[in-house]
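Throughout this chapter, every protein is written as a compact record of paired, labelled lines. An example of such a record is reproduced below:
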Amino acid sequence: MGARRWLVSGRVQGVGFRNYVQKHALKNGLSGYAKNLEDGSVEVHAVGEDTALQILSGYVRRGPMLADVRTVDEQVAEHVRYDGFHIR
């Protein structure tokens, strides 16, 4: 089990980015959240199996069709227990 935090910038708000991440997080058995930040970026925090986190990392870096992901800062994060994967 591991935990990761991504800060994603570019055109990532208003393009379905959080829903896209939630779909792939749930599909891979991860818990956590995705939320818009005031500076226009999106924060993603996910907890689960390391392989699933690696898979989600690829989706975070790609984003949905309408997104334009410019930078991704990925960090090992605190392991927090979440009930599902939520959009905040």
Q: What stands out?
A: Helices lie at 17-27, 50-62. Residues 50-62 form the longest helix (13 residues). The chain has two helices and five strands.
